[in-house]
Each structure stands twice: as C-alpha cells, then as structure tokens.
Amino acid sequence: MSLQEKYQTLLELANSNGTTYELSEGDGVLHITGSAPDEAAKAALWAEYERIDPDFRSSDLILNITTAAAAAGGDVHTYTVVSGDNLTKIGNKYGIPWKSIWDHNRDILNHPDKIYPGQELKIPQ
Amino acid sequence: MRVKLLTFLTLAAALFMIGCGKSDADLTKAVNDKFAAEKITGVTVAVKDGVATLTGEVTDITVKNKAEAAAKSVEGIKSVDGAGLKTKPLPTPEHPSPDKMLEGTINENLKKKNITGVTVAVKDGEVTLTGTVDKAKVAEIMMVANEAKPKKVINNLNK
C-alpha cells in the first residue's frame, strides 16, 4: 500500500474542509504541507492522522498545516443558533453561502440540517 | 384490432430498446461529461460492455478516487477498472533545516506551549522524540515537531 493510499482519508478530508495542500515524498516519508481555513479544520486533520496512526509511531508522515486564520490574525465571529434557524438563513444574515458555515463548523455539526438552539457556530469572515 | 396489436408491438419494441441501455459510445460520453462537471482532468475513459477502464495520470489519490466514483455513478456503467489510472510521482521534500536549527525551533515552540519532559534529538533532519508525557499532549508535541519542517519524526514518547 502506498503512503498516499494509507493517508487517503486524510487527503479526502483536506479536500472537503477547504485545506489546500502539496504533497512530496522522500525516504519513505509522505509530506503534506498545506494551509487550513481555520483551527477547527486543522484539528480535524490531526484527528484523522491520529485515527490512522493512533500513537504516531509510523514515522512515515510529516503533516505541516498552517491555518489561514492564524496567518491573517483574524478573529472568528460566532453566532448562537435560535429556534427556527437553518444554515441558509444564518448564511443570509451574513451574506455568505450556508456551505461555508457548514465547512467551518464540521467539528460540532454532524449534518447540515441538524442545528440546535444554543449552539455556537463560527462564522467565517 | 389489428392496428391496436401493431401499436402495442411497436411500443413494446421501443420500450425494449430503452431497457437495453445505452451504447458504449453513449456511456463514454456520459462519463466524460461527468468528469467535466466535476472538474476532473487528465483521465481517459474507454467503455466496453458497460465496463469503464480509466487511464491517465492524476495529481493524487483523492482525484483517482473521485474519478472512479464519478465513473461508477454514471447510469449504465457496470464496473470501473482504475488500475491504469496512476498518481503523479511526487517531488522529493525540500531539504530540512539544519539539525541545530530544527532542534532549537522545536524546543522553543514546546516551551511556548508549556510542554516539558520532551527530549528532542535531531540527526540528518530526522527528529527523535523521547520522554514521558501526558497522553493528551502527544498530538500537540507531534504538531510542533512536524511544523518545524523535519525530514522525519520518530516518536518514542512514553505516555
């Protein structure tokens, strides 16, 4: 199994959560160097890495992910869900697509249709 | 009566033709359209008897997976053979920072995170981590080590 195959779910996750990355490989080590949209996306990637290699003992991956938010120094606005909300409605309030809210809150949301009053959603700037 | 029968037979024949499915040429076009819609490039498809064979070279395995899934999703495609679809050979990583610098960066960043008990040894760009640490901190320590741009990280930490 190639290293790309071993870590393919990690790469799929990067593609789906808005992380851009470049790959290189040398001496049996796969290097994923990239930039995630925020800390949550980066944490999700690390969680996936830990799932594939639970104790980080394989010494076959260098995961170097920076976050765009950290680079820009931007603060993240949060929105508290109230009864009757949905992602599209919240997105409209900020003039952003529902999907970008979904992408930024994958750590707390399991399904785009399931949000609950009191949840604090991160709103990308 | 006779006319009715004829109409019925014609209709039945027409339905049968539709039921037979699309030709391989139609399917090839459908797969290519699907690739275009999903912005998948660099993949050549050949369909024979409903089996799509993919060839070409793509950026990485995620594109290969996507192409295979896209081809499979086309109605009429029975199976997909992606064995001939290769991933681009990867470039070799940049040279790691000099050992001393790597060691310094890692130690400094560990200190910033108030992480103690980790011994960092670097040789030829390969970082070896030893020491006994809290299990919850391992991922954080690995993050610090990975982001210092080493060639490899050997994790010998005890929890």
Q: Strands of the biggest beta sheet of chain B: in what spatial order?
A: 1-2-3
For the termini of chain A, the CA-CA separation is 40 Å
Helix content range of the residues of chain A, please? 25-40%
Number of strands of chain B: 6
Shape of chain B: elongated
CATH class of the largest domain in chain B: Alpha Beta
Q: How many helical stretches of chain A?
A: 6
Number of domains of chain A: 2
Q: Report on the biggest sheet of chain B.
A: 3 strands, mixed
CATH architectural label of the largest domain in chain A = 2-Layer Sandwich
Structural write-up:
The complex is a heterodimer of chains A (125) and B (159). Chain A has 125 residues and is α+β, with helices and mostly antiparallel strands. In chain A, 38% of the residues lie in helices and 24% in strands. Chain A folds into two domains: 3-72, Alpha-Beta Plaits; 77-123, Membrane-bound Lytic Murein Transglycosylase D, Chain A, CATH 3.10.350.10. Chain A is built from six helices and five strands. In chain A, the strands form two sheets. A three-stranded mixed sheet of chain A has the order 1-2-3. A two-stranded antiparallel ribbon of chain A has the order 4-5. Chain A is elongated, with a radius of gyration of 16 Å. Chain B folds into two domains: 21-87, Histidine-containing Protein, Chain: A, CATH 3.30.1340; 99-158, Histidine-containing Protein, Chain: A. Chain B is 43% helix and 26% strand. Chain B has a three-stranded mixed sheet. Chain B has a three-stranded mixed sheet with strand order 4-5-6, with helices on one face. In chain B, strand 1 (43-48) and strand 2 (51-58) form a beta hairpin. The A-B interface holds A 2, 4-5, 8, 11-12, 15, 23-27, 29-31, 46, 50, 55-57, 59, 62-66 and B 60-62, 65, 87, 90-94, 138-139, 142-143, 146-147, 149-155.
